[in-house]
Amino acid sequence: MKKLVAAAAMGLMTMTTGALAGGHENFPERPIMMMVSYGAGGATDFQARIVTMTAGNEDALGMPIAIINKPGAGGRVGWNWFATQAEADGYTLGAYNIPHFIAQSIEGGVEYSADSFEPIANWGADPAVFVVAADSEFNSMSDVVDYAKANPGQLTFSGAGLFVGHHIAALQLEKAAGVKLAYIPNNKGGAGAMKAVIAGEVLGGVNNLSDAFRAREAGNVKILGVFDLERNDFLPDVPTLKEQGFDIDNASVNFRGVMVPKGTPQPIIDKLAEIVPTMFENGRVAGKMKAGGSPMHIMTRDEVLEMWAAREQTLKELLAGL
Amino acid sequence: MTDLPRTQHIIASGLVAAVGITVAYVSYTQEPAAAFLFPRLISTVFVVLALWTFGKAVLGHTKVGNGLDRRSMMNILPGLIVALIFVYWAAKQLGFYTASTATFFILLSLYDPASHNEVKSWIKRVIITAGFLAVMYGLFAKLLNVFTPREIFF
Amino acid sequence: MEFLAYFGDVFTPINFGLLLIGTIGGLILGATPGLSPTMAVALLIPFTFRLEPAQGLILLGAAYTSTVAGGAVSAILLKIPGAPANIATTLDGHTMAQKGQGARALQLSFLASAVGGVFGVLLLIFLTPVLAQWALAFGPSHLFWLAILGVTVIGSLDSSSVVKGLLSGCIGLWLATIGFDDIMGAQRFIFHSSVSGGINVIPALIGLFAIPQVITMFAKGRKSLDAEVLTVERHPIKDAFREVFSRTRALTIGTLSGSIIGLIPGVGGQIAGLVAYDQSKKMSSESEKFGTGHSEGVIAAESANNAMVGPSLVPLLTLSIPGSPTAAVLLGGLLIHGIFPGSDLFDNYPDVAWTFINSMLVGQILMCIFGLYVAGLAAKVAQVPNAVMAAVVLGLAVFGSYSVQNSMGDVYVMMALGTGMYFLERFGFSAAPLVLGLILGPIAEANFIQGSMIANATSSVGQYFFTGALNLTLITIVVASIAYSAWMELRSRRYTTKDDAIEKEEALS
Predict the structure, then answer these.
(1) Is A234 part of a structural domain of the chain?
(2) CA distance linking residue C434 with residue C431, whole number of Å
(3) pLDDT > 50? residue C290
(4) Fewest CB within a 10 Å sphere: which of A183, C235, C246, C405?
(5) Does B36 map to a domain?
(6) Chain C: nearest CA to A69, how far in angstroms?
(7) In this complex, which of A41, A68, A153 lies closest to C338 when CB atoms are compared?
């Protein structure tokens, strides 16, 4: 019996010392967790699961990544948790959505800002589009703006919430067209906002390109414009807002990627920043993403840092008027 | 109606009313007002109903609910204390599996009608506890891959 | 007839295996006193995380179906209703068992359950697609009133006191507002870091339904289950078949009233059995025989209980308004997989929706077959000592609520709500309206806010919420349900004497 206890104690000690003494060369030694601040099955969760599915491969991290959902309040719950309670040991990753979390931190009332996180890599970019019901009288963005000019403040249109990409797109449209619109945020995200358009509760809506693409395939909506710099491969026939004469850039495009909390050891950040983008480039990942109608846009850590800084600048100007 | 349930009803409905009034106070004073529109609506109804219930309890008109007699209270107390210690302290500090095994065994010893003096009934308790631990570990650690806190022990 | 296309999916090895596990497990869980269907389904949800959406729902649906039927076993043999829904079954079923006709009573109850259940699911199959299209007509104002309706109907009809029922509903609505608000992102009522993300529905459900049962078991102290188990003698199934189908009146009344009650959001199964029992007693030519071991009583009560299961999912699958606490738990199971019920479900995930619904149909048959065989065994499980039961349920509740999102805060919330609910229940408050408040609260609020925003942009708030046929109909039902219950409470003094109240509570615990 004594021997057994001694052996168990020895075992325990080696386990703990092994974990403590190990440098960062062997990272990762155990499975990694990635926090997604939206519910399971939403676009962010869906894509996060696809892009991390090859993490366990020997040429990637060699350890699987498990997705943990912490949904609520447009992502604030998850990001608050990530900024304040997540351990900065490299085993806790988080998914970011730009412009959402930057816009929320500018608005205030949350415990994070762009400085709370260290980006690793970007995997996707989902532009916002303007949709109307299939039987709507609007056929172009100028029809929409003309109606809004004739009925100021009465053009109701839905979006996924306040201080998310859709809201930014709405603010940009108001500013560029110089009209007052009635933006109706929906608490069920893009899916709920789309339902409001199809059911005729609102006259139009801003929605994700991928969801709008599917709804158009089903014959439920018309897509009038893309809030991006260029036309999208999924919708080559839909003009951008800029082509239709509105000065709107890509500030509302929903960028999705991976980040870690501030304070994560630099060697681990470097290692992740090196491996994670190659993981996204995997052919199986690209195939699955395309099948799901999710546009990919891979960016390295340096590119993301630049994009975050640029986005913060634009959003501060845009939201200053609120 | 005897006095014990009546007093208990007054305390219970008083507490509910106090919660209601606090909620209403917070809803009507906090900003931004737009975010508290719905809480204002419901807390108003809440306070009205809670005061009504409280009034009925004070007047002794409460018809439903029997409160707790002394014997049930004494029966509940040890189990509830063990359960609360388990959830609010032991689960995190000792690790889920250690804490739940200990809790399981203590609850069994407290409430199982079998004799406390016979070795046989103690063996039975240990076996049931071990079986429970095995099933929980199999279900949650192996099948569901839940990474439960394993602070000191396991 | 779209549902026929997905029948094959029910019989894939994994799906069918899960259906079998859910059915047999559900029968056993249902037969265990104190494990209500809602609680059984809530405790099962963490196990569906790793499954595909359709598979998870098959497991939950099968468990829902068979726990309701399994509850009859302990009701008949032990005079302890396995679930509140089985109270009416004890009246005649246990008397029959005392006369030595336990097997007959069990056979009748499972056959009647299957008939009622199949009818209920067929109703679900044919009504849901129609209503799902119609559901688009429900705008924010209508959904707001519908959510309020769900809370008030269950608060006023299901509780023994209208005021306390509605008050429980208010507490639930308030709990739902804790955390960040969805639209503005403002923090509300965050008095402890555990609730900073709001109250997660699944741990809350586990706590509200499981913990009061655990404490109730504590309250009984160190004593063994004193209910006597009656010996069951053989009874040919053929006779039971003949008897069930010759009692067409009881069977029809039970099935119809169960189906209708199931369709009303908020009412749920608790009262279906009692209403059906009462109605068939009134309409029977042998009404004096009721309560003396009369087969009509068992048939009416049990066919109603299971007929309620299918229709109770109609409001959930079409309008995303869960009609009963159990349906609310199923909603949690759907949302975990990112599926919003409603027209979206049938448009984008027809395979999930139809496989699930079909599995419930097959499940009714399986439930009946296994019920007849398992009945004897299930009665044994019903004798698991209180102490073991309490400790197992506590353990499952803690592990289950932790595993929802690996959060200790959820476990704390679960325990706090559960303990509080036990004491509230002792003073006449009930869990069902509180749970519906908690679940329907966000739906009510979001639609209220969206409705007022649309109203402010186009017309006025009063006009938007208080005009239109659908709005007025819903408001009328809300007012009528409260008025009716208040009137009943004053007139017939529903549970005036303390003994009545005790009797009801004893039956429930």
Answers:
(1) no
(2) 5
(3) yes
(4) C246
(5) yes
(6) 7
(7) A41
Write phi, then psi, for C359 (nearest 5 degrees): -65, -30
DSSP C99: T
The Cα C299–Cα C278 span in angstroms is 12
Length of chain A as a residue count: 322
Looking at the fold, whether B75 and B131 belong to one and the same domain comes out as yes
User: Which SS3 state, helix, strand or coil, does residue C406 take?
Assistant: coil
Nearest to C136 among A73, A198, A218 (CB): A198
How close C140 gets to chain A, by Cα (Å)?
Answer: 8
Walk across the sheet containing A156-159 and list its strands. A182-185, A156-159, A204-208, A128-133, A221-226
- As for how many domains chain A has, the answer is 2
Confidence of residue B130 (pLDDT cuts 50, 70, 90): very high
According to DSSP, residue A162 is labeled T
Nearest to C218 among B9, B26, B75 (CB): B75
Chain B neighbors (3+ CB pairs < 8 Å): C
pLDDT on residue B19: 93
State whether B30 and B80 are in the same domain.
Answer: no
Residue A86 belongs to domain spanning:
32-126+253-320
Give me the percent of chain C exceeding a pLDDT of 70: 84
User: Domain ends where: B40, B59, B78?
Assistant: B59
Domain assignment present for residue A242? The answer is no
Output the CA–CA distances (angstroms, integers) from residue A246 to A81, A178, A183, B72, in the order listed.
38, 10, 18, 73
Q: Do C394 and B103 touch (CB under 8 A)?
A: yes
Distance from CA of C187 to the nearest CA of B (A): 9
Residue B153 forms part of a structural domain: no
Q: C458, A74: Cβ pair inside 8 Å?
A: no
Rounded-to-integer distance, Cα A288 and Cα C55, Å: 22
Residue B7 domain-assigned (yes or no) = yes
Contact C367, C71 (CB under 8 A): no
Going by C-alpha positions, the residue among A171, A159, A164 that lies closest to residue A131 is A159
Same domain, B30 and B77: no
Q: Quick check: C437 and C171 in contact, CB under 8 A?
A: yes
Q: Kindly report the CA angle at C243 between C238 and C249, in degrees rounded to 5?
A: 150
Closest residue, chain C, to A109 (C-alpha): C186
Task: Give B104's pLDDT tier (boundaries 50, 70, 90).
Answer: very high
Residues of B in contact with C389 (CB under 8 A): none
Give me the sign of the Cα torsion angle A108, A114, A118, A123: positive
Instruction: Supply the pTM of this predicted model.
Output: 0.78
ipTM for the predicted complex? 0.92
Q: Pairing state of beta strands A254-261 and A296-299? A: unpaired
Q: What residues are paired with A222 via a beta bridge?
A: A132
Are A121 and A155 contained in the same domain? Answer: no
Task: Give me the residues paired with residue C180 across strands.
Answer: C187
Contact C498 B1 (CB under 8 A): yes
Q: Provide the pLDDT for residue A96.
A: 92
Range of the domain at B123: 70-143
Look at residue A11 and tell me if it is in a domain: no
Does one domain contain both B45 and B103?
no
Q: Are C233 and C100 in contact (CB under 8 A)?
A: yes
Q: Are residues A263 and A122 part of one domain? A: yes
